Amino acid sequence: MPNRKLQFKLVTTAMLTLGLSLCHWATAQEAHFVSKKIADGLYVLQGEGGFTGGNIAISVGEDGVVMIDDSMPPFLDKLKKAIADIAGKPVDFLINTHVHGDHTGNNAAFGKGSTHIVAHKNLRERLKTMKIDDKPTPASALPVITFDSEINFHLNAGEIQVRHVAHAHTDGDAVIYFKDLNVLHTGDVLFNGLFPYVDLDNGGTVNGYIAAQKNLYEHTDAQTIVIPGHGPIGTREDLKASYTMLEEIQALVKKLVDEGKSEDEIVELNPLKAYHDKWNWGFITTERMTRTLYKDLTTK
Questions:
Q1: In this structure, are residues 276 and 245 in contact, taking their beta carbons and an 8 Å threshold?
Q2: Would residue 244 count as lying in a domain?
């Protein structure tokens, strides 16, 4: 399993923002994908040696290839090679878990070919308003199949359930459950063992994030393999650990907000200090998590 500290040490604030210009920053020469088979016909690609984007899942079978998320442009060639090594044929369906560029960065490349891009309808609308290097998002990068609440694929001798969770990481999140394999891909509704990025500017909310994780926990079991958006592959207990932590730190910040403390005063008091060693990381630091909680609690 790739070391998570190594995987994330190069992440900066620009990496998970909507601007796909982040891709010029990535150290494509050093980072590469590591493939792991986690069930019959199902593989996960994770970055090693640097940040390659979110965890990618690839389903391979007689009916074709289904891929979840697609990294960033500097890693396109390495991604295509990894797909060829696993599947030996092109991607038929690409499912985007959410709008951020480290998960949708190669949409245009795949969309130009025979790949059908699938996503929640809000994701398509947000992509349409984005600009890459001051240019509108190309049509080939946009999902051609969208859904409101859920959509199911009956492929590769199994059922792939794609479901929307509302106002969690963003307002266009999709979680994917490989029903017959009992494998769940959460997208960025789980940063396993890390403070999560709740994108308040793109429809995310802390309460929605917690609710989504609780719902996923309730609909999985002890044998479910959980593929997070970032971090190591885990289990449903990792979902519980995350939402328990979030509820606790939300309560700590809320208490100070209710006392009339300002954002900077709360940061100075460092109410999350007991969680720092376990959950802090390069992109969502303890301070940034504190500020996110404050903004979420004080925004109407």
A1: no
A2: no
